């Protein structure tokens, strides 16, 4: 895994999303319904999307900066 903290956070969120999705399916299969679980999943997805957008913007900004020749 990368030493990049943003990449680490992205991978962590992806893992959490998988776990939350599995937990929600188990709740539904057992007949229990919780409105908070899908809400938490939605918030985590939004957080991941935000990180991905910021990460892409950082990459674009880094590519736009050209080293000075000297």
Could you characterize the architecture of this molecule?
It contains two helices and no strands. The protein is mainly alpha-helical and 70 residues long. The longest helix has 29 residues, at 36-64. The protein is elongated. It starts with a helix and ends in a 6-residue tail after the last helix. The mean pLDDT is 78.
List strands and helices in order, with pairings:
Blueprint (H helix, E strand, L loop, with lengths): L4 H25 L6 H29 L6
Helix pairs in contact: 1-2
Radius of gyration: 18 Å
> Mind summarizing the main beta sheet?
none
Share of helix among residues? over 70%
- Tell the overall outline: elongated
Number of strands: 0
What are the key terms here?
about 70 residues; mainly alpha; about 75% helix
Q: What's this model, at a glance?
A:
This protein has helices at 5-29, 36-64. It has 70 residues and is mainly α.
């Amino acid at each position: 895994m990368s030493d990049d903290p943003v990449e680490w956070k992205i991978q962590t969120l992806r893992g959490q999303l998988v776990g939350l999705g599995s937990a929600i399916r188990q709740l539904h299969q057992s007949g229990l319904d919780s409105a908070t679980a899908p809400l938490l999943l939605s918030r985590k997805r939004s957080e991941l999307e935000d990180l991905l957008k910021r990460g892409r913007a950082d990459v674009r900004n880094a590519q736009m900066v050209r080293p000075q020749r000297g």
